[in-house]
Design goal:
Layout lengths: L1 H6 L5 H5 L2 H10 L2 E4 L4 E4 L2 H9 L3 E2 L4 H6 L2 H6 L1 H7 L10 H12 L2 H5 L2 H12 L7 E3 H6 L1 H11 L6 H15 L8 H25 L5 H7 L1 E2 L2 E2 L2 H32 L1 H9 L4 H12 L4 E6 L3 E3 L2 E3 L4 E5 H4 L34 H18 L3 E3 L19 E4 L1
Parallel strand pairs: 2-10
Antiparallel strand pairs: 1-2, 3-7, 4-12, 5-6, 7-10, 8-9, 11-12
């Protein structure tokens, strides 16, 4: 095993930028890999990733054991953050997952998402028009980052001018939620951010309880199934989850997508000529360089895989980006082909935790990428190399210099 321990170092800059050669090697030689730097099991084959995501012996609840492991004074200091994170459907197993997810499904309907098309198209135009004659700019900062925030706020029915403070509170909570090891005051900051954000949402919810509006926050407050409804804390927690879960992911879909099209100019020109292929192109972007590097789980019941024993409490990474390039499933997986079909990528996960926001992300991706190609025909990349973020769950870049000539 020593040789494999040496080959996958997730913090190595070259590996962060392109983990595929290592994933390919692990798929062939060590499909159930113990990664010493991560102290976790790593699965890279498509079939294993799907199996793990469906397996009831493996739990999505990675919060309860984490909170239990905190010293009691630290735990007392983050009671509010914990209260809201504890409502997140993403961290729940059945039956709690089933209950909250079926209430959320009533709000996140395909029809509700389709209705957002005009406001998304509008938001895209507002952001792109001022960029038309700008010679050089940062594509992430000016377009891919602000767009999803605008869309989520519009969807929830919140004023766009609140973006700044919501962003500040998210940034306070991020080091705690993302498990940063470098931030010393992350507990106190996360608690302050959670209290402020919860107060903000509580006021917005109470206003909608007395005066319902045509927005998703009102629908979350009002949705019922049998005699059940979301509690006020669950509505607040879910709204925070939408902000977290739907923002940077979609930013990275748009950023990685436009970059892939500019790096493969033949595919870019084909799409410009045939915009009706944008939906399929978005699926290929999600597969080829999607925003999801991995999903994380914990072993709930001891069991064996590939002859190795996974013990209760062990952490598991399923490398979705690796699975999306598994040649056992995809022909020429390293070729970017916007007409690829079928394209059963796992970027939105698989099984009960399949991304609730997938229809929204797909619609945003389709409109945003389509409009960028049409409205900014002379766009090109202004850097030779783009460094990906050093995180274990996402794939994307913080900055993306582009130019128009
Ligand atoms: C391209 C953009 C997106 C990608 C790649 C993505 C990816 C994912 C993935 C991989 C999961 C499963 C996480 C896990 O179980 O480990 C997930 C779950 C989830 N996503 Fe997304 N997401 C995107 C956009 C959105 C948007 C726009 C929203 C909502 C505004 C959203 C809301 C959620 C929620 C609520 C869950 C939890 C579902 C559950 O556990 O049942 N996502 N997403």
């Amino acid at each position: 095993m020593a040789v494999h321990d040496a080959i996958y170092n997730p913090r190595d800059r070259g590996t962060i930028n392109d983990p595929l050669p290592i994933f390919r090697q692990l798929q062939d030689e060590d499909p159930c890999h113990w990664c010493a730097p991560l102290k976790s099991w790593v699965f890279t084959r498509y079939a294993d990733v799907r199996d793990v995501l469906l397996d009831e012996q493996i739990s999505a609840d990675r919060l309860t054991p984490y909170f239990a492991s905190l010293p009691s004074d630290q735990r007392r200091g983050v009671m509010e953050v914990i209260k809201y994170l504890n409502t997140w459907v993403a961290f729940k197993d059945p039956p709690d997952h089933t209950r909250i997810r079926s209430l959320l499904n009533k709000v996140f309907t395909p029809g509700a998402i389709r209705n957002l098309r005009p406001s998304i198209t509008d938001a895209v135009a507002q952001l792109l028009d001022p960029l038309r004659n700008v010679e050089a700019f940062d594509f992430v900062k000016e377009f891919a980052y602000p767009l999803p925030a605008t869309v989520i706020l519009t969807m929830l029915g919140l004023p766009l001018e609140d973006i700044e403070r919501l962003h500040e509170w998210s940034a306070e909570m991020q080091p705690f939620i993302g498990g940063a090891t470098t931030s010393t005051d992350k507990y106190a900051r996360a608690e302050a951010g959670a209290i402020a954000m919860a107060e903000y949402f509580r006021a917005a919810i109470r206003e909608r309880t007395s005066r319902p509006r045509d927005d998703m926050l009102t629908k979350l407050v009002a949705c019922r199934e049998n005699d059940d409804a979301l509690t006020e804390d669950e509505v607040i927690g879910s709204a925070i989850l939408f902000l977290f879960g739907g923002h940077e992911t979609t930013t990275n879909l748009i950023g990685n997508g436009v970059r892939a099209l500019l790096q493969h100019p033949n595919q870019g020109s084909e799409l410009r000529a045939k915009p009706e292929h944008t939906k399929a192109a978005v699926e290929e972007i999600l597969r080829f360089d999607g925003p999801t590097l991995a999903s994380v789980r914990l072993v709930g019941t001891e069991h064996e895989r590939h002859g190795r024993t996974l013990k209760c409490g062990d952490r598991v990474f399923v490398m979705i980006h690796g699975a999306n390039h598994d040649q056992r499933i995809f022909d020429n997986p390293n070729v970017f082909d916007i007409s690829r079909s079928p394209n059963p990528h796992l970027t939105f996960n698989y099984g009960i935790h399949f991304c609730l926001g997938a229809p929204l992300a797909r619609l945003e991706g389709e409109i945003a990428i389509g409009e960028v190609l049409q409205r900014l025909p002379d766009l090109s990349l202004a850097a030779d190399q783009y460094d990906y973020m050093d995180t274990m769950v996402m794939r994307g870049v913080w900055t993306m210099p582009v130019r128009q000539t």
